[in-house]
Amino acid sequence: MPSFPRLKRISFLLGLIPFVFFTWSLFTFSINIPWLDDFEAPMTIRAWFAQPDWFDRLKMIWFPNNEHRIVTLRLWVMLHYFVFNQLDLKALLLTSHLYIIIIFVLLWFNLPNKNRWWYFLPIPFLYLNFQYHLNTFWFIVSIQRNLVIGFGFLAMFCLSKGSYKLFVTGILCTMLACLSNSDGLLFIAAGGMILLTTFDLKKLAIWTGVFITFLTLFFWNYPSMGSNQNGLIYLVGHPWQSIQGFFVFLGGSADYFNEQDSTVRLVFSFSMGLLLFIIIIWGFQRWVFVKAEKTYPSFLKRWTSGELANPNQLFLAGCLTFCLLNGILLAVLRSKSGPFVFLIGNYKIIATLAMLLTYVVTTHLVSSIFTTKWVLPVALLFWLSSILTYYPAIKNRKEFLLQDYQSFIHEKQGLGFSKENVKKYELHLMMVQMLNKGEYIPDTK
């Protein structure tokens, strides 16, 4: 049996494997070629210079993309352009993944103090997998979701700590999450839940007032919500499909049959989602209520005294609320599109986050020996399976984009657009102009 220091060094090297492989994959398979909505980036640059008036430029930054405000993405694109005088989608995508450092640092400090490293070891294997590869390698989806998660988790951390300075920071981070993608709005509800749990009525009143004002501005001249209304109408007639959809979404991390539209995918994902939901309810019931009631027998007294939950519990509850609300919202609005819509690749990052956060909750209820003996092997198998299942699609996507870019340049069609739409939106002209000015240099291999 190796000595403890040696064992810890070995485990540290083991934990580095998913970090190194994920980073290598990012640099190898991300590509400076736009696909479909990625054209938002060059169009932002063109629209900025087409509007000499600053007020018009601000309106352009604020204007929705489909049904999302993507203010942070547009500002990031323009900042990068002014610094480097170039559009580099790959560089922007790579830098957006710095949010992973934020997530892992926050989770580290929310693990049990004793044997923290052993509890942390499964986390990189659970999260740095390739289940959600679309979110990893598709430029616009990646940046939108990464910014939402990064800013949102920071906001939950700030609110869980209770200080007024961090409360203000939490408000700002929540706003930035909302302005990165529409699901960032769910952090408003998650933050309100934290403040309500701590019975901090003054902060809750400020939070409510600030975000009522913010939401009024957010939805001013917003695109039609007709599709959402249709989803609500469908829900009334098909409630079971929405319930099923919620659990399928929540268990999307168990979807290893991505090439089949079969009930096998739904059964596995539904079962995983139901299991996670049970563990979440059981975990918080054991961790928050059973342990706390020994000191504060009265629930009302614990709540009104602000002693119902500690900062670790509040942070994890806030982040899990965001994940669960994502599932509820999609289940309500998207069930009419069929059950497989919940297994779309760029949704799976939320399911993976839910699984990861559920694991962190359980670390406060099980021993580190149990974690290394049972959870770590499962996490390692989960990570390896994601590579075997999804890596061919990742490599094929890059090869496809390289070929499709040639079709776009020479035949004026491709990259998600027909020849008619390329002409209608002057996409080919825009890209050729940027090529000629040296503002855009595409990858060639």
TrEMBL record:
Keyword terms, alphabetized: Membrane, Transmembrane, Transmembrane helix
Keyword Membrane carried by entry: yes
Membrane-spanning intervals of the chain: 12-33, 91-111, 117-134, 146-163, 169-197, 204-220, 264-284, 314-333, 340-362, 374-393
Name of this chain's protein: Uncharacterized protein
